[in-house]
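Researcher: Go.
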Amino acid sequence: MTEIERLAITMARRAATEIRATARRRYGVRRKSGAEDLLTEADLRAESVITDILSRARPGDAVLAEESGYRPGRTGVTWVVDPLDGTANFVRASTHYAVSVAAVSGSGCLAAAIVRPADGQWMALRDGALDGDFTQDPPAVATGARVAVAFPYGAAQLVEARAILALVGQRYEVARTGSAACDLLRVATGALDAHVSVALPWWDTAAGHGLVHASGRTVVHRRSPRRTRIDISGRPEVVRSLARLLEEHSQVSEGAA
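Model: Structure:
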């Protein structure tokens, strides 16, 4: 395991420990852009754990974190951090939330780790391959593909995102948990067939897409005519079918992001 891969796993686990500790006591909750876009003490503490470790271990790297924004670097490596993806689920005591940490460079994803604090399940890159302890979902009863669709709360592209959700739902069984990191974990293990993200920030998907790619599945990027970013990942044949479906209905253009 490379030093960067080891660091990603360490930071995600320590942030998850901080989230579990916060969940055991009273904590503050406030809204950001809308009723479902929440910020808690757990988000801030988890992000602080990660950025503090990075400041000591790799001070020359750039960092893009959801709550504290962008810190430039000089090494060509950028850490993309979502300290608590699925905050609304965390507040409701659902298990579908996760810490998501990725290191990227011009050559691609160098490290990726996702840890679910509620149940301890995790997945990460080790020597570029998948490693972890993640429970597979039981086989689906439905014969069709299962596709997760995700978009941010309060997005300017919300009308377009909901139209895409309805379109995908006409052909596939749609799953929505409120955590792109958790859903992409399931795509990487094969529990879900594909994931469509509409206008999601990079920190929501960087680690998940790294894991999906390492699993041998496909990740493609598109732009809609309104320039909305749409990422499609999963089993290659399902990704191709989804891309055709959206293109045929004038939702996205051919150009890659």
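Model: The CA atoms of residues 109 and 181 lie 15 Å apart.
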